[in-house]
Amino acid sequence: MESKKIEIETIAGKFFVDMAENKLVWKEDPTIEVPLDQTVFDGRQYYFAFDKYNPRFAIEDLDKIMITVPQLLDIDRNEFIKHYHLEGIDIKGMNDREAKLLQPALADRLNGEIALVDIAGELYRVNYRADVLEPLRGSQIPAISMEEIGGKLGQRKSIFLMNTVTKRVANDLHDNLIIVEMKEPLSIDPVGCAQTYQIDYRNIVTNIGPLENYRVAKTMSLIDIDGQNVEKPLIDSSLQVETTGGSFFVDIRNNKLIWQENTDVIIDLADAHFDGRSYSFNFSAKDPFFRDQNGARPIVTIPQLINIFPAEFIKAYNLQGIKVHGLNDQEAKLFQPALAERLKGAEVTIDISGELYGINYSSDQLIPINNDQFPVIQLDGSIRGTKDDIEVFLLHCQTKEVVRDLAEDLMIVEIPSPEFVDPLGYAQTYDKSLAEKVMELGPLKNHHVAKTMKLTQTVNQKVDQKVNRKRGMRR
Q1: Which of 267, 354, 448, 465 has its CA 20 to 30 A from that of 104?
Q2: Dihedral sign, CA of 431, 436, 441, 442?
Q3: Which branch of life, at top level (predicted)?
Q4: Of 270, 399, 420, 413, which Cα lies nearest the Cα of 348?
Q5: pLDDT tens-digit readout, 67-109
Q6: Element (H, E) at 259
Q7: Dihedral (C-alpha) 178, 181, 185, 187: value to the nearest 10 degrees?
């Protein structure tokens, strides 16, 4: 629903009132938000300490540190009624929380309707006990783990990638993707949440925005830009090693092993034990998650990579012409030309759609190098469910500002996590061993080009016509 722009004046300046999201947005800096469920409500007014949300804000007179705003019904009664679908309902004399309990969607849910969310034409309901979004079609498509998409209770919304073919959450950029923006679990089905955790549903309903029993997640398609190939690399079947845990493909460039029987099972050699000549890790060919009665798993051992595939190792780590005979994997990696150049003072740069950035580890930021008109990029993991070794975020195509909501003129950016881009800078900042950090990584380079894809509008697929899209669905 389109919201009217509502402003209120406070001692901290002006705020926009977002009735749909039940929050205040500071006009001076719209990235600073005050969720009203985190304020104190006395029945007619909301109170909050603004320095909690904006540490830069300070008032000399401590008696005025608490900011007060009227309840939403008093700010704009008509807009409140419109958002909470209270037309024709007598709410005279009620406050915000009392009025919210009269929402038609709440009455319908209490009378047996199922609360649903539509993600690209597929209907899901929240199973709070299993902590998943459960597809209405059952086993035909996979459930979506709330942990995987960052949809924990208290999380305002989740933005994540989904493969349109498999309907699974994607953890990096490649073809056949959409990006999804979805409401927090509490907003999808507060009654179901209350029943699962045995709490009073009224305590949830009165603290969130308008209820709907049928919600459509915002989705946008992704298209490749800058002529990049963002497909996942093919597995090289010639690089294969046999173990007591079965056969593994060896991904030298990413320092990983991929189980041949199920390529979704990946062993990161950074997590394996290295004794100077071989790697060992816990794994069972019968069941990758198998544990014996003592809680242990079988140990699998493989020789170091430089012994299994010496030519491929030398090529991957750019060690041509360097004497590596007798060296182990860790020792050989320290002779990489990129590391030598970095130790001599070369900068590490990341190219994001033609703009160069450096890394500031202490603030976890990317700093523009050649254009001070562009803002720094704060890395905050706003896209959920991605791999640990990458950062994925939304950037405005023109202003190069980080964006936290789906909109037009945006691109999605994937870069390696800073510690994988510049192990020397990481080791110096956090007082870590450079040799150990380099050992954990694949081949180093001092210039990286980000993967970027452009967001485009999509139209959600039609859902089963038997479903009443407005009112949800009966049990």
Answers
A1: 465
A2: positive
A3: Bacteria
A4: 420
A5: 999 999 999 999 999 999 999 999 999 999 999 999 999 999 9
A6: strand 256-259
A7: -140
